Amino acid sequence: MALTLRYAALSDVGRVRKDNQDSGLASDYLLVVADGVGGAVRGDLASSTAVQALRRLDRPAGGDLLEALAGGFHRAHDRIAELVEDDPELEGTSTTITAALFDGSRLAVGHLGDSRAYLFRDGEVSQLTTDHTFVQSLVDEGRITEEEARTHPHRNLILRAVDAIHETDPDLFYVEVAPGDRIMLCSDGCSGVLDNSRLADILGTGTPDFAAVELVRAALEAGTTDNVTAVVADVVEAPDGAEGNGADTAAQTSAAASTGAMLVGAAAELPRNKAPRGLFRGHRSGDTGELEPVPGSEASAGRGLPFLGRRAEPEEDLDPEELRYAPRPPRRWVWLRRLALAVVLLALLGGGLKLGYDWTQRQYFVSADGDDVAIFRGISAEIPGVELATVHERTTVRVASLPEYRARQVRSGIDARDLADARQIVTRLEELVIECEPDPTSGPSSSPTSSPTGSPTGRATGGGRTPAPGPTSAPAPTGSPTASPTASTSTAPPTATPGDPCGEEAP
Ligand code: MN
Q: Is it true that domain 3-272+294-323 has CATH number 3.60.40.10?
């Protein structure tokens, strides 16, 4: 059974932009939507050039449709490269292409960018193409939903397109079609604001012409700020006998009866506007002669939109369209890479700190814990908020009982090689503990009350160590009765003088 297409195409500059950089084509064998990217660098030239390059495919195809389509994409790339070669100011121009090639039974789809192809069948809309966009990659990874993608700040950013530089590598696939199917191609100015259920509502009614008009109208009403292009084609049974070479004329007659090939958007407008060459010096190569480029302002005037054109001028420098095509996914990867680097650095730093801290916890030193000598674990350095040393072992040695020089050493900390070394240091310190020699502090304190017994008392308290001399001394019997009352009344501390290093030694 031979099939044929009934089609319509419509493109609108929209309510915000001053020129239309979309191009569209609907014909017997070929449907194309191309959305030019580049703002000031003439995306309209890229899209119209692409459509013109693909237009050669609008004839009864022999052989592999996908190969033919791939060839068309390559030609589009070559033509755009020639444009840029002729006028380096066009560098950076590029275009999306979504194209469907029909051979009377099968439909082949080629696709690069974020224009879309849909199939409307049995009241249901299904999207045939997958956007080559940053947000689509996020959706694919499950990071955001389709709904979130619609409002994502970078939803316009496309990662692949046909340009003058990169190798053209479109998605290519066949779609089996049957009578009653409706194919729809559109630019993001349309699909960006109309979801599938809205599209199904519109595609479910009327002729291709009516549907195309409704799509553009609905997109504008939905508030799109972009150019809007829609191509609609119904798959219908070819009139009887319209098969084979002899029937070509019949098929053409039926197609012509409906519409004839329709070229819309920049592809249709550029050749129409025969403006002076002005900005574009020199001549162009012959086969692109029909695509006379015109300065933007004159193109606007030619389209009767001088007001819009003038109003858009201040925004020209900030046209987001110029930032639309990024062959490399930007922000996310940069951000991720920076994050990874920061994590690695932090890990190294953390690991280093941990190693360093572990090291400090294997160090020991001897120092003062209040009044007592203690063995500390850690290092005797002070970092605010970080505990670098803890008391590991307490000793019975009082700092004050040490010779002044040693006491000072202890207070500032004596480093040890390890715990055993620290214990040896403590042992040596114990040996240095001052014997209770006549003490300049205890002497005067007791003398005012009992000068004669002062010295025996001092002896007696320190005598814990050497009990023998006390009792053996002759004056003891007389001394002690007199000494004890005085000691108990006036100098209660003698048994445990806080300031006396020897006082603590006895118990
Ligand atoms: Mn667009």
A: yes
State in Å: Cα 272 to ligand 1 middle: 22
Nearest to 324 by CA among 92, 47, 44: 92
Cα of 475 from ligand 1 centre, angstroms = 118
Q: How far is the CA of 75 from the centre of ligand 1 (A)?
A: 22
Task: Find the 65 Cα to ligand 1 centroid distance in Å.
Answer: 27
Asked if 251 and 4 touch (Cβ cutoff 8 Å), the reply is yes
Q: Which long-range contacts (CB under 8 A, 24 or more apart) does 313-319 make?
A: 313/18, 316/39, 316/40, 319/39, 319/40
Could you tell me the distance, in angstroms and rounded to a whole number, from the CA of residue 15 to the centre of ligand 1? 13
User: Which secondary structure element, helix H or strand E, spans residue 151, and what is its range?
Assistant: helix 146-151
Indicate whether 115 pLDDT > 50: yes
Ligand 1 centroid to residue 11 C-alpha, Å: 11
Ranges for all domains in the chain classified under CATH 3.60.40.10 = 3-272+294-323
What number of other Cβ atoms are within 10 A of residue 158's Cβ?
25
CA of 389 to the centre of ligand 1 (A): 67
Phi-psi region of 465 (alpha: psi -120 to 50; beta: other; left: phi over 0): alpha
pLDDT, tens only, 271-294 = 544 333 334 333 333 233 333 333
Ligand 1 centre and the CA of 34: distance in Å?
9
Please write the tens of the pLDDT for every residue from 295-339.
Answer: 333 333 333 333 333 333 334 445 666 678 877 665 556 777 788
Helix axes 208-221, 196-203, angle to 10 degrees: 140
Task: Give the distance (Å) from ligand 1 centre to CA of residue 378.
Answer: 67
